[in-house]
Write a structure and sequence with these properties.
Number of strands: 9
Strand order of the largest sheet: 2-5-4-3-1-6-9-8-7
Largest sheet: 9 strands, mixed
Radius of gyration: 19 Å
Structural class: alpha+beta
Oligomer: single chain
Distance between the termini: 54 Å
Shape: elongated
Helix content: 40-55%
Bound molecules: Dihydroxyacetone, zinc ion
Length: 273
């Protein structure tokens, strides 16, 4: 099969372009990785070449040994992905130790995977484990309203989860486990990757202060939808705060408990204080 005819590649490109259209990917902002299913790898393998050199990931992800990922390229713009996939995205194979990768398709003309590859792969490792292999997508974007919130609220999981939950009734239904917050850290390296993947053990959303957001999910729709839901709630937060210093009324602890009962949600007590 021609690689660009494969449904998983089409789904990846559509999600990347949807993110661009939402305004979450100025310049080269953001990155997206997908852990490819074995049968999907088989279906397009004839397009792969194995002559590019192995490169160090910069961290060790033994659980992902032998896996294949689609990734955005470093310095590449989301808005260009749909126009020229082969230059802006690629497929990488992880070696049998989980320490190196090599590009087997795309990222032509000497391009490399995203600078956030260590964060993505460490998140994939944790998510593969805790979801029993179900989670396949890690998505990083720069949505403006969530970033704005990181200048206003205390940088705690409790403050962000509760405030965002209160903005839209659907939020605790979509992410009942809550949201994690990473304080400002240098991006692109192992330290921020370790911190983010620690949060990903508990949550599907991690906010990077003054930078953006990471989401994890089973497929493109679920992961994009999660980013979209959190950012929509953050937009409402910004609108409310722009109108008045204090909310006049909101969803109460009692309301959350009623919702949890009817929807069968397990909302952690520490977000309901
Ligand atoms: O390069 O968003 O965090 C894209 C980024 C880095
Ligand atoms: Zn970023």
């Amino acid at each position: 099969m021609k690689i660009l005819d494969a449904e998983f590649i089409k789904g990846y490109i559509r999600m990347a372009n949807d993110g661009w259209e939402q305004g979450w990917h100025e310049r080269n902002g953001g990155n997206l990785t997908y852990r490819i299913k074995p049968e999907e790898v088989e279906s397009v393998k004839e397009n792969f070449t194995y002559d590019r050199e192995w490169m160090a990931i910069g961290t060790s992800v033994p659980t992902l040994a032998g896996e294949y990922f689609i990734t955005t390229g470093t310095g590449k713009y989301f808005r260009n992905i749909i126009l020229d996939p082969e230059s802006n995205i690629g497929i990488v194979e992880i070696d049998e130790k989980g320490e190196n990768y090599r590009i087997v398709w795309g990222l032509i003309n000497g391009s490399r995977p995203t600078s956030e590859l260590p964060s993505h792969l460490m998140n994939h490792e944790v998510k593969k484990e805790v979801s029993g292999g179900k989670h396949r997508v890690i998505y990083h974007a720069h949505p403006a309203n969530v970033i704005a919130m990181t200048f206003v609220l205390p940088l705690t999981d409790e403050a962000f989860t509760r405030e965002i939950w209160e903005m839209v009734t659907e939020c605790p239904v979509v992410f009942p486990e809550g949201i994690g917050v990473v304080p400002w850290m240098v991006c692109g390296g192992r330290d921020i990757a370790v911190e983010t993947s620690r949060l990903m053990r508990k949550y599907n959303v991690a906010i990077w202060a003054h930078h953006g957001m990471f989401c994890s999910g089973e497929d493109f729709d679920i992961t994009f939808g999660l980013m979209h839901t959190v950012e929509k709630a953050a937009e409402i937060f910004v609108k409310v705060r722009s109108m008045v210093p204090e909310k006049r009324q909101s969803i109460t602890v009692r309301n959350f408990k009623d919702l949890a009962k009817d929807f069968g949600l397990d909302l952690p007590e520490r977000f309901l204080k």
